[in-house]
């Protein structure tokens, strides 16, 4: 399970600050010169800036290779289809369940006699405990031995705790990026092509003109206004 970095946790910045102070203090101690101390401080900060620029370029290249920005543009169904193609490229038999009713699982994966149920969450915010609860229920329904929740974002603390106590594997944004990067470039699907293969039909709300988005409720799927809760208009699938 991917480790979630706590808010405000930045060990690199903390280390740079500490080294800069040590450099200034050490130079001043041995030379008794504030100018020399300042030069040492500036040198360390300059080196840190160069490293930060190099790391930023490396992160940007990593994001580009993963195609995560294109994945962020997929809708829910496209994300499920993309994951299906992604896992098929890794030797899984992957079935997207949306057409037949998912019963808590968006995909069913099979490989080497093992069945795994997957909840796919293409979100703009962190995924909560509902996804974990749904996939745990899906395990029993489909007779699966494993359960995963995959998202392009992250998970709430409650979701991490519930997943740990139920043996659910959580694949967050960083883990998904790493998974994609580790794959053979010629085997992994292109999210841009997925958008073309599974186009989103534009549905506008008759009340406010906002985009209608596909959602799931206790009675199944429906289209709800994206401006909810300001507009509560819904439409049957």
Poorly predicted residue ranges: none
Number of helices: 8
The value of Rg in angstroms is: 24 Å
**Sheet with the most strands?**
5 strands, mixed
Class derived from helix and strand content: alpha/beta
What strand order characterises the main sheet? 1-2-3-4-5
Shape estimate: extended
The total beta strand count reads 8
Q: What percent of residues are in strands?
A: 15-25%
The pLDDT mean sits at 81
Element order, helices and strands? HHHHEEEHEHEHHEEE
Oligomer: single chain
How helical, in percent, are the residues?
40-55%
Distance between the termini: 35 Å
Description:
- The protein has 237 residues and is of the alpha/beta class.
- 48% of the residues lie in helices and 17% in strands.
- The protein is built from 8 helices and 8 strands, in the order ααααβββαβαβααβββ.
- It has helices spanning 11-31, 34-66, 68-72, 76-88, 129-142, 157-166, 173-182, 191-197; strands at 93-96, 107-111, 114-121, 146-151, 169-171, 212-217, 220-225, 234-236.
- The longest helix has 33 residues, at 34-66.
- The protein is extended, with a radius of gyration of 24 Å.
- It starts with 10 loop residues before the first helix and ends with a strand.
Task: Give the key terms.
single chain; 237 residues; alpha/beta; three-stranded antiparallel sheet; 8 strands; 48% helix
Give a topology summary.
Elements: H1 11-31, H2 34-66, H3 68-72, H4 76-88, E1 93-96, E2 107-111, E3 114-121, H5 129-142, E4 146-151, H6 157-166, E5 169-171, H7 173-182, H8 191-197, E6 212-217, E7 220-225, E8 234-236
Parallel strand pairs: 3-4, 4-5
Antiparallel strand pairs: 1-2, 2-3, 6-7, 7-8
Helix pairs in contact: 1-2, 2-7, 5-6
